[in-house]
Fold:
Amino acid sequence: MAPPAKPTDERSGLPAPPRHVAIIMDGNGRWARERGLPRALGHRQGVEAVRRAVRAAIELKITYLTIFSFSSENWNRPIDEIDDLMGLMKRFIRRDLAELHDAGVCIRVIGQRSHVDSELMTLIDEAVELTRKNSKLTLVIAFNYGSRTEIAVAARKLAEQVASGKLDPSEITVECMADALDTSGIPDPDLLIRTSGEMRLSNFLLWQTAYSEFVFLDCYWPDFDKSAFDGAIAEFRSRERRFGGLTKRSMA
Ligand code: IPE
Ligand code: IPE
Ligand code: MG
Structure:
């Protein structure tokens, strides 16, 4: 398991800048509706915002950026919209992979492989393999992802190890649960951003956000830009992270 985040920057005494930012990219549909456009166009503009977010994360020296791009519950949407979203994911990988690789981005994907068409799965596997050794920014794409399933699958893996005699129940710790999750080896998000004004997690990173700071932005995802990102980071840096303990500020 990755070491826990430090609450403050040791030299400046300010909250440390976030190492890992996770984003629930929400509001594509409303962005389109307000313009009298089809939802598909909102999703297309959403991809532009992803490109801006990746560039900004590199500029801001963030080392992990996790984006929620398709939830396990999004299969409940109309089939045409699902097809649009799958098509956009394929196009994003085909068009942007070389540039992401050149920029030193390592791509990781979390979520279930089931139901995803094989052509897309092949593209995802190739992107992950090509960028495996890059270390400037790890872009974690949560695709066909749902946190409850992730946790249930992790519990099943550990239970199987117990059943086969490889693991004793007393050895099941927070660390070994964390290592059994899709996010194994990735530090917990310091900052979670959700756009579009909704204030819920929608089954995203339930385990990993135990001590994340949450920033909810009113802008719709297609309008997300560097200044919105800077604003969220500034808000994060004004927070006091206590991790259940006390800080100098809280004792003054
Ligand atoms: C986020 O925008 C994209 C996905 C969930 C895939 P939405 O499509 O949820 O947009 P709204 O919430 O309907 O505005
Ligand atoms: C969460 O947004 C999923 C993604 C951003 C991919 P939703 O729009 O699906 O969430 P709910 O349905 O409003 O909770
Ligand atoms: Mg939504």
Q: What stands out?
A: The helical segments are 28-33, 39-59, 79-102, 118-131, 147-163, 174-180, 226-237, 248-251.
